[in-house]
Amino acid sequence: MDAEICVGVVGLGLAATAHIRGYLSHPQARVLAVCDNDGGRAAAFGEQHGIERVYTSYAELVTDGDLHVIDIATPTFLHAEMTALAAEAGKHIHCEKPFCRSVAEGMAAVQAAKKAGVKLLVGETYVFLSSHMKARELIEDGAIGRPLQIRQRHGAWHRRAQHELHIDAAARAWRLDGAKSGGGRYPWIFDHAVHFFATAEYLMGDTQIDEVYAVAASAGGGPSRGGAEHDPYRTAEVDIPIITWRYADPERQGVWMRAERLNGKYDFMHGFSTTVVGETGIIEVLGEGGHNLLWQGEQQHLVLHREGQETACFRFDEGGDRVWASEISYYGMGHVNQVHHLIEAIRQNSLVRYGGEDGVRAVRCTLAAIRSAQEGRPVPVAEVEESYKAYE
Ligand SMILES: NC(=O)c1ccc[n+]([C@@H]2O[C@H](COP(=O)([O-])OP(=O)(O)OC[C@H]3O[C@@H](n4cnc5c(N)ncnc54)[C@H](O)[C@@H]3O)[C@@H](O)[C@H]2O)c1
Q: Are 221 and 264 in contact (CB under 8 A)?
């Protein structure tokens, strides 16, 4: 398909701002329409990016006959419903994570996309981040032998002094709402853990996580300090600072650990990083907002250590992050990569790398973690019923 691919973007907040650069930088893509139920924001966004059609109603956007793709960047509770409506209208879909709030909700949207024969890409940016894609490539090339263990580290994200976030607390209040965020008493975990589970399976060659155990804690413990300043999150009454998991392959396991100001702790490395331990080597890699991965005093984005060989280091010179004070380009290239991937999948009629069922899987693992924290026991992912939700 060489014709121009016309896109309509709905939900014009932080995520849409990152997506739009992906479309604007692809020669075959054109953002023809935008939509937000906040008319002022829709008009300003349309004007800023020179977009012809500005809607305040999703029903009108989705039935615009000139659009081939709907990009859904609205709050989480709208994702599955908007995906199903876009599929029924015959549009290809790029939908932000978390894809759904329950397995049942997500699978209904997946079925709608299958029935319509449209492409559905879930915007799981962690599997489109250059450093993670390079780590996967090295692992596939056998650089560290069979990957056996994954360790993920999470500290606070630090905003750049000059950034492009709209910091409107009222508009972002959905993030704290149990039903709108989907996370019940664990809105932060629900919004973010999908990234960590997606990474855990992606860097383990798509081996599925079988069972999850979350260590629950009362929050706090350190001095009261702000976390990621742009978000409305407050120190939660319940915290999940550590999650461990086993894979279907019993030799493999993983752990994710969070220490940031928002949960009363402080990890000076900031952001996200991952270590993959293989049979013959290890890879350390920076993720969202990450920095301070040093080798011989120099900042690196990925470090590869192998038995009996020189350590190799990689940097991805992509112009830096647009939002975080970070060594890695998350809000730059991570989002651009995923948008370009969808456009290419449409042009070449190829499979998308992270589809609806993948998005539902990450949510299912997240729900297993929340249930584990609530019940104080390991929870098999398969035990999470289709109807199970983290909110009342
Ligand atoms: N992949 C990533 O790295 C990443 C980063 C940020 C956010 N996200 C995800 O993207 C989604 C949006 O997050 P955000 O931070 O951009 O939110 P946001 O609050 O900044 O923006 C959401 C926008 O949606 C609009 N909206 C709400 N209801 C609407 C409706 N019915 N119709 C049209 N517009 C509507 C709001 O007015 C607002 O402008 C969330 O699910 C979030 O988890 C993903």
A: yes
